Amino acid sequence: MIEFKNVSVSFKQDKQIFEAVNDANFKIEKGEIFGIAGSSGAGKSTLLRTINLLQSVSSGEILVDGENVTNYQRTQLRILRRNIGMIFQHFNLARNLTVYQNIAFVLKAAGKSKVETEIRVNELLDLVNLSDKSNSYPANLSGGEKQRVAIARALANDAKILLCDEPTSALDLETTSSILSLLKDLNKKFGITIVIITHELDVIKSICTRCAVMNKGSVVEIGDVYAVFTKPREEFTRQLLSHTNHFNLPEEIIRKMQGPIIRLTFKGDNANNPILSYAANTFQIGFNILLGKIEYINGLPLGILYVELIGEADTIKLAIEYLAANTADLEVINHGL
Amino acid sequence: MDFDLKAALLLTFGQTMQMVISSLLAAIIIGGSIGLLLFLTSNTLFLKNRIINQIVGVIINITRSIPFLILLVLMIPVSKAIVHTSIGPNAVVIPLAVAAIAFFGRLSEASFSDVDNGVLEAAIASGASKLSIVLKILLPESLPSLIKNITVTAVSLIGFSAMAGTVGGGGIGDLAIRYGYQRYEPEVMLICVIVLVLLVQIFQIIGDSSAKQLDKSSK
């Protein structure tokens, strides 16, 4: 468990004090995959780095497994860091060391013998599916392979926590999903707590259970990923989501349509029910599906559907009332003629 | 010719090598340590300390801004104190070493600074001690660049050692000046220059190929 208690980080910049993190207060539970979203410069990376004290805090406390680690130094700090692995956007592998040497370094630095190191490195390479690349140099690996090596290195000393600083931002879509599924597997298999910071909301949607949203150094919203993504409480979160949720009906279609156009949002269980055809039968209206999608956020479905309703004004009104009551959200986009 | 050119060449070549190699070794060990100190005291991941960094930096800068010919003269009392003579290759090794230490100090600092800070940060994050990071990450990562800079230092030292001939340092440069220039024997001058050119080429080729061998950062 990681707990932030009134954590603030400020830097002095040209005689001005810049608050990178402002009074962060929240907990990350053991074994969860926790995401921190926000645009660049929001302080996500600074906040992440306070967990393993790569960044010292200006005020407040960091608790790891209930213990205040804020003032750890030397040996105590090194032992803490062995238990907290970290991976980076640009992988940060030593270029003149082989894959094997890169991983072996952190084991030897933790005092493991040559034999122990060899056994563990091979075990880790097996875990990330890179046994055949043991003697390769990072320059000869693909981005995804480099990140796998970095993950193996981060977990070498049996880390219980894995910090991920934009782990997929330098990778293509396909590689991103393979790295994310590896992280998810590691979380399931070993119960590792994973903290991911990213500006890619899709990453958070696909693997995180809970997330925090940061803006200008402050944590503005925190909650279950599904709740944050489907019903954001804060205006900033809504704006952030609207930049990535490109799912709007083209203007041309809105202008062309005669009847009222509604936007239905289905969540969780009701995403699978045939509510629309039931409404059409009951109220004797026709409908014209314009656009629709279902996506899964943290394993739960979220459906969005744009429909043009066709029929008499009063029955349409009743149908809209019925649909509003039986879906998560209903928005009338265009009232029609 | 009234002197044995072959014997003179062998003798002075030996003197040049003696001057270059011993001052180069001093530059690598002492200059390299100073470069490492400059790097470590400038980097927040290690031992950031502005005061030490600036004091050492200023000393290096002052040494580097003194023209070598003047340094040669300035160091005469120091040479006398250390090697009990102010002439000959042993004596000029002292000013050569001082110049080379300052020169390589700056160059090695640059080599260390060129190492990707993210790689060092990752090592810090893994809980490794700073000493093991310096020895097992920083050094291998900067080695190709360090070797290139050692080569640059060696080549400059060949030039400086030739200059040292003028204050009685001996070496091929001395031979070129005394026989080639002062006694006007152009063939001696030519041979000396050819030997120096070959020496520089050999150093450069060895340096370049070993740097390339050690650099794994491109395919």
Characterise this structure.
- The complex is a heterodimer of chains A (337) and B (219).
- With 337 residues, chain A is an alpha/beta fold.
- Chain A folds into 2 domains: 2-13 and 23-243, P-loop containing nucleotide triphosphate hydrolases (Rossmann fold), CATH 3.40.50; 251-334, Alpha-Beta Plaits, CATH 3.30.70.260.
- Chain A is 37% helix and 30% strand.
- Chain A is built from 12 helices and 14 strands.
- In chain A, the strands form 3 sheets. In chain A, strands 6-7-8-3-9-10 form a 6-stranded mixed beta sheet, sandwiched between helices.
- In chain A, a hairpin with a 2-residue loop joins strand 12 and strand 13.
- The radius of gyration of chain A is 24 Å and the shape is elongated.
- Chain A starts with a strand and ends with a strand.
- The model of chain A has no long low-confidence stretch (mean pLDDT 91).
- With 219 residues, chain B is an all-alpha fold.
- Chain B has one domain (5-214): MetI-like fold (Orthogonal Bundle), CATH 1.10.3720.10.
- Chain B has helices at residues 5-40, 50-65, 68-74, 76-83, 89-113, 117-125, 130-164, 172-182, 186-214.
- In chain B, helix 1 (5-40) packs antiparallel against helix 7 (130-164), helix 1 (5-40) crosses helix 8 and helix 2 (50-65) packs across helix 5.
- The model of chain B has no long low-confidence stretch (mean pLDDT 92).
- The A-B interface holds A 52, 54, 77-82, 84-86, 88, 90, 92-97, 105-106, 108-110, 137-140, 150, 153-154, 156-157, 163 and B 116, 118-119, 121-129, 132-133, 136-137, 140-141, 143-144, 214-219.
Radius of gyration of chain B: 20 Å
Total domain modules of chain A: 2
Q: CATH H level of chain B: which superfamily? A: MetI-like
User: Mean of the pLDDT scores of chain B?
Assistant: 92
> What structural category characterises the helix and strand content of chain A?
alpha/beta
Q: What is the name of the CATH superfamily of the largest domain in chain A?
A: P-loop containing nucleotide triphosphate hydrolases
The run of helices and strands of chain A is EEEHEEHEHHHEHEHEEHHHEHEEHE
Biggest interface, CB < 8 A: A-B, 34 and 26 residues
* Shape label of chain A: elongated
- State the distance separating the first and last CA atoms of chain B: 56 Å
CATH secondary-structure class of the largest domain in chain A: Alpha Beta
**Biggest sheet overview of chain B:** none
Q: Residue ranges of chain B: pLDDT <50 for 5 or more in a row?
A: none
**Number of H- or I-type helical stretches of chain A:** 12
Total domain modules of chain B: 1
SS elements, strand count of chain B = 0
What is the succession of H and E elements of chain B? Answer: HHHHHHHHH
Shape verdict of chain B: elongated
